[in-house]
Amino acid sequence: MNDRPALRVLHLEDDPADAALVAETLRSEGIACDIVNVDKRDAFEAALEQGGLDLILADYHLPSFDGVTAHSMAAVRRPQVPFIFVSGTLGEDIAVEQLKNGAVDYVLKQRLSRLPSSVRRAIREAEDAAERARAEEEVRRLNAELEQRVVERTAQLMDAKRLVEAREIELRDAKSLLEDLLAASPSIVFRIDPENFTITYASPNVGWLLGYDVSEIIGVRNFWRRLFHASDLDRAVDHLHDALSACAVHVEHEYRLCGKDGRYRWFFSLMRIEYDERSRPITILWYCSDISDRRAAQQALLETEERTRAILRTANDAFIGMDGNGCIVEWNERAETMFGWPREEAMGRMLSETIIPSRYREAHRNGMLGYEGSGKSSVVNQRLELSALRRDGAEFPVELTIWVSGGSMGRTFNAFIRDITERKRADTAIRQAKDDAERANHAKSEFLSRMSHDLRTPLNAVLGFAQILAGEPLSAEQHDSVRQILSGGRHLLDLINEVLDIARIESGRLGLSPEAVGLRDVLTQAVELIAPLASHRQVSVVVAGDALRDGRAVVADRQRLSQVLLNLLSNAVKYNRAGGRVTVSVDEPTPNTIRIKVTDTGPGISSDKLRMLFTPFERLGAESTGVEGTGLGLALSRSLAEAMNGSLGVDTESGRGSTFWVELAATVDPGSMMIDRQPAAAAVSPPPAREATVLYIEDNLSNVRLMGRVLNRRPGVTLVHAERGGLGLEMARARRPDAIFLDLNLPDMGGDDVLREIRSDDGLRSIPVIVLTADATNGRTELLRELGANHHLTKPFEIDKVLAALDSVLVATTEAEGP
Amino acid sequence: MTGQGRILPREDARRILLVEDDRFLRRVCETSLQQRGLAVASATNGEDGLRLAKEQPFDLILLDWLMPRMPGIEVLADLKADAATREIPVLILSYSPREEDRQRALDMGATGYFVKANLSLKALCGEIERLLS
């Protein structure tokens, strides 16, 4: 205790001696102390207030104060400071009570020697107490600190829990979103464990895309192989094998995957493969997108393209495409041969520099610019004929149509181009041939017309003068000669007429007027006409019972039908035996057809000659029989029958006679259609003599002389003559003739022009004109009538007809002039 | 592959810049390149990739052709226009197998062109190692 600082002691004692004794006792025992002595309440209180005390000593009995009160005050104010009573009179009871109240000890003044040990114990106890208090304080503090930490940690844990909950919600949301996305996605997602090739994840849309439940797939070894179409499995396995050995991370292919129902569809397959550090695959993520629609469209497109390619490849025409810049983008095989540019060289070249002759390139460029500007073009969608340029510089004609197709890559101008060199050549040849044919035809017509005229004009003289001679008093021999001349002349005339008819039929210029022709009329007439010849040959002509029955009619040209019937009848008479018979009969092989048959009793025709029966000029040896004939009659008759939509044929048997027949369409007889035939008797009774002047405009003098002789039969008629048309018109104006005979072929002008002049001249207009012409070409009569001819007679003319025509115009004039 | 597990890049390791927006491809490329002892920096779009290329030195750039915010073609043009980056070999990663796209990339100065479909890590890494050796 010696090293301890001096004890600070407060001593409440009223007796200074006792105070000194106490101090001395303590010091003597080696207890260092600073003692503050107080004997009053105020001082004691002040000392307590001041503090810094280690020990309080107090007497029990004090004059103005007492130790018990002091103890109470100290217990309140300084409870830690030990309090020891030092008194001479303290009773046992009080002492015990004060000890219970916290006093440390009490020491009787009489036994002061106990004080030092008491003080020491008190101080030790106080110090222990203080130490304990400090320790308790520390524990308290630590407790408080711990509690604070627990609170804070708890708060932290609460936060963490909330965070975890929030993350869980987020995760749940994300998972839900993923599930939703995958459920409706057109792509199935699988995860494959490459260790054993089981599927460890399958997105739920596998249900509606392939018909599987996820639970059927997960964990089933090698299930992925079942998903492939049998034809794609090997391929897919190879692909995956290759990918794994190359460490491929992103593998795209297209496969057919089978649904549970066995049907397959096309899928786009994407595998993403992750590897560990030893290049072993860890995971395979496999995405499968349904692309069956796209595949189908692609397939269709492919087929269309393939077909188009095939068409273009085999096309007979060149097919060329050009883009908006004028570059060639299509060039088929035919284009290669047509233009001489191989496809690989042509593609990408400027079209205009490749196939367009340089002189047209400017126009081509302008056309393109115009189309770009206005979308209009004079060439698009038109059939065009142009000149094209071959690689070797040659030009050739082409035909083409351009059309525009618009794709995503811009416009394309397309054309099929046809090389028309051959066609052009053929066209030219055809045109040439047609021109030649037309020229030849024209020449033929010209020739026929000329022949007609040239042959008839002299024949006119021959027959005319022969007829006049026949009326003269001649010896029998002379008469016979004249008859021979007339017979030969008429035969020649028939020949010319038939040749002309055949020529007309061949050239399609035979004018026909089909009408209903009553059979009774036409047959009666024909039989009447043939009667003189028949009686001359001693052949009887018989018309079968009902042939002339009323009401039968055929569709025919009346004139031509007569001609055919006459031909058949005259043949039947001419090639009959003497005393033979010709039978005319009619039947109806079908309800709409009438067949007129002419049957003879001649020798018949052998089958080897039948073939040539209808060949022109073929007389089957008749030329040696003395029978007159042209050899044209049957050929012409058949042609005429056919021209009238009928037919003509023969049934014959050698030695048993022949039946020639003509078949025509039946029709209804128009009834009482009586033909107004001028009786030949007109010439027999000449009209009363009348003074008249007749002008004959004709360059052929023998014809003029013939006419002079003919007009001798009309004593009152004076003939004046002009050799040329112009002269004829002058004479007509000077003489005002009563009638004009006009030849059509005059040296200075055409007879038709003379006629026109006459009809347009007021002074001449009323003069009747009779046209005489050797030109028997069909259609002239109609034309001449239109021009104003009163009559048209063909040369060689029959005298009777000339007189009849003249009489009729003179009578008409007389009547018009009459009273 | 070395078979020794991942090798952490050494201080002097060659540096690769990987510009790729596809997370999966970025991951597998990063992993694979790091396994070969290469240092890999990644960017997920063209802008970031170009910025990184200008801030740091790289020995090779792997560049995606189609990316958000600046496509690969623009990044490449910029890299080749800048003297500081012009010499860095650039390998293109593209989805397009079209020859004209490949030619275009090569014409613009790319060193190689890889089509992502069926992209082989062995081939890609082999080419990178060849270029760096």
Polypeptide structure, described:
- The complex is a heterodimer of chains A (819) and B (133).
- With 819 residues, chain A is α/β, with parallel strands linked by helices.
- The longest helix of chain A has 70 residues, at 115-184.
- Residues 671-685 of chain A have low confidence and may be disordered.
- Chain B has 133 residues and is of the alpha/beta class.
- Chain B contains five helices and six strands, in the order E-H-E-H-E-H-E-H-E-E-H.
- In chain B, strand 1, helix 1 and strand 2 form a beta-alpha-beta unit.
- The radius of gyration of chain B is 14 Å and the shape is globular.
- Strand 8 of chain A pairs antiparallel with strand 6 (119-120) of chain B, so a sheet runs across the interface.
What is shown here, in short?
With 819 residues, chain A is an alpha/beta fold. Chain B has 133 residues and is an alpha/beta fold.
